[in-house]
Fold each of these.
Amino acid sequence: MVRIRHRAVKAVRYIKKVDKIYLLVGSLTILLIIGSVTLVGLKTKTVDTEESSKLVEQLLAPCNDKSCVWDAAEKLTELYGPAIALSALELYESSGQAVGDTHEWGHIVGRQTAETYGATGESFLKCPTSFNYGCQHGFFEKVLGESDSTRSAVDQICGQLETDNNYSQKFKFYCYHGVGHGIMQSYAYDLTQSLDICDSLSTRMAQDGCWQGVFMENINGEMYGKSEAGIFLADDPLAPCSRLDIKYQHECYINHSAHLMKIYNGSVKQASEACLKARADKIESCLLSIGLMTANDTWLPNLRPATSGPVVNRAWKLCLEFPKGYVDTCVEGAVDNILQFDELNLGRADTLCKLVDATIRQPCYRRIGYAVRAQVVNNSAAQNKCSQFAAVDKTACLEGAGV
C-alpha cells in the first residue's frame, strides 16, 4: 500500500509540471505498434468507407503496375488528404489484386502530404500510422531532402507544435515520436546512430519522443527481420534495454513487451516476472508495457492465460498474473491503452477502476486523470472530464490531472 501511495504522489508532482506530461504520453503511444489505432491530426478529414470504396473503383482498380498505383496515391492525397488516400489503398490491398510494395505506398502519400499541405507539424499529424508508418516516413524524407540537416528538418516539422497552445501534449509528443520512426528507417535500423540524431534535438520533449519512436521502430524491425544484428540477445530477454545508457531505458522498456511476448509465448506471468530483472527504477517501465497489452484487442488473443468476456474484465484477470506488489502497474497500463483508443470517453476506464481491488481503485482513477490531462489543452478541460466521477473517485482523477 505504501508503494502505491508513493507512486501516486510522484505522478501528481510530474503532471503539475507541464513540460513533464510527455512522460505519460510516452506510455500512451506504444499502442501505435500493438494496436491498429489511427492517430491523426485534429483537422484531418473523417474517413468514410463508402467514399474510399468508390475511389478504389475509380482510381486503383484499373492499375496493373506500380507506377499507376503511385500516381493514384499522389492524386488521392492531393485531393482528399492522407487519411482517405491510405484508407483507399488499404481497401485496394485487401482486394487481392494490389500491385507493388504497400509500405512504399505510405511513403508516396507522406511525400505528397508534405508537398500539398506544407512541411509543418500540423500537416505531419495528418498522417495515419497504416502501412507501418509509411506516411510519416515519406513526409520526413521529403522535408529532410529539402533541409540542411536532420535537426533542422525535425525543428521544421515539430518545433512550432511544441509552443502552440492549441495542441495537447499528446499530439506534440507524437510528432517527435513519428520523426523517431522516420530517423530509424532512414538510417537503416542503426540504433546507435539513430539515438545520436535524437540526442542532437533541442528540447527534452523532442529527444524523448524521438527515442520512443526509434525504439518502437526497433521492435518493428525485429518483427519484420530488419533489426540490427546483435541488438536482441537470446541469453538476455531484456536486451537491448538492459544494456543501454540509463537515459534511454524508459522508452526502450515501454516498447519492449512485444519482444517479451515472443520469448515467453504470450505468458503474462513469465513476461512480467522477467521485468523484475531490470534495474530497480526501470522495473515499472517494463511492466507498464505489458499492462498496455492486457486491454488491447489485437494482443488479447495471443496472451496467456486465455480470457473471455469484455475487454476490461479480461484486462483485470490478466493483471492478477503480475508479480505481487505490481498489479497496480498493470492496471495503469490497461487504463493508458483504453484511453488511447477511447480518448476522452471515460466509460470503459471507469468500469475497469470499479472492477479492481479496493487498494488499487484510487490509483486507477488517478491514472485516468493523468491520461486526460495529456489529451486536453488546459486544466479546466481536465477538471470538466473528472467531474463526471463522484466523491473520492473524482478527487483521485483531479489529483492525477494535477488540478
Amino acid sequence: MQIALDTETSGLDIRHGCRPFFVSTCNSDDKTVYWQWDVDPHTRQPIIPPGEIDEIQEYLDSCERLVLFNAPFDMLALLSVGVKIDHLWKKTDDVLIKSHIYNSLESHKLKHLCIKYLDILDDDQEALGMAVKKARRIGRRLKWDIARKDHPHFPGIKKGDNDIDSLWPADMWLPRALWLAGEAPDDSWESVCRVYGLRDAERTLILNEFYDTQ
C-alpha cells in the first residue's frame, strides 16, 4: 500500500528550531490519517502526546511505498520529533523529482501542478492564508511568539521581509491555537489548517499517480 505524507511546520528552518505540528497522510485506499498537535504560543514548540510518535513510526513502517513532495524537508521534519527515517528512504518516492523529470521548465509548486494537471483548486490555501494573516494580528496583540525578523528560528529572514502578511506560512498553527484560547472570530479556525494539510497529502498521492501513468 502507498502512503502519501505531508507535514505542516512552524517554519522552514528545521535546523534552527522550527517543528512539525501537523502530520497528514492519505493511502491508496483514499483513507486519511493525521496527527495534529497543540503549539505552545510562547515557544512555538508542538506539544506531542506520549505514544504518538510511535504511532507515526508504526504506520510509516507498515507501508510498501512512501510518497512525499520534497522528501528531504518532510523527512527532516519527522526526524526532528523523533521519527526514525533512515530505513524509510529505500521505499520513498519524491513527487517533486518526478515533476522535474516530466517538465523541468515549469513551476514545481504542488498547488500549481495540481491545478494544471488535475484541476484541483487551491481554495484551501486561500482560506488558510486569510485566516493566518488575521491571526497574526491577534497574536501580536496577545504578545505571542509569532514569526518575525530576528527570531532565532528564522535566520534566513532578510530585512524587508518582516511585514505582517508575508510571513504567514510560518504561523499556520495560529488559527487553531487562537480558537483553543477562545480568541478566534469563528469556529472555522479550528479546522482551516487541518483541511489544508489533508488536501496536500491527497494532492501528493494523486499527482504521483499522474506522473506514474505518463
